[in-house]
Design brief:
Shape: elongated
Number of helices: 1
Largest sheet: 4 strands, antiparallel
Length: about 90
């Protein structure tokens, strides 16, 4: 059996100057004072699983994410994950 999924998410945050200032002040000095909360996050997941036997699954998943902070900084992530699972029944 072969099965696949595609999932997409978009999260948007409202700007709250008081909360953002409190969050920035709560960050330890060792992490820097340039912390800015996220403005929005976009994520995508695509995966495929193959079950060649009733007790055995193999799969692969690709994940992509992009975020923008209230300071207009942009960050991206891309990850490929593989798995194999055997069920002892």
């Amino acid at each position: 059996m072969l099965r696949s999924n595609i999932a997409v998410a978009h999260t948007r945050f409202a700007e709250n100057q008081a909360a953002n200032l409190a969050a920035r002040q709560a960050i330890p000095a060792s992490m820097g004072s340039d912390f800015y909360p996220n403005r929005h996050i976009n994520q995508l997941w695509v995966n495929t699983f193959f079950t060649p036997d009733k007790n055995f699954d193999i799969g692969i998943e690709y994940t992509y994410g992009k975020r923008e902070t209230f300071n207009n900084e942009i960050g991206k992530i891309s990850r490929l994950t593989a798995m194999a699972r055997y069920r002892f029944e």
